[in-house]
Amino acid sequence: AGASFAAGSSGAAAANSSGPSRASKMFIGGLSWQTTQEGLREYFSQFGEVKECLVMRDPLTKRSRGFGFVTFMDQAGVDKVLAQSRHELDSKTVR
Question: Which one, of 10, 20, 17, 32, lies nearest residue 81 by Cα?
Answer without folding.
Answer: 10
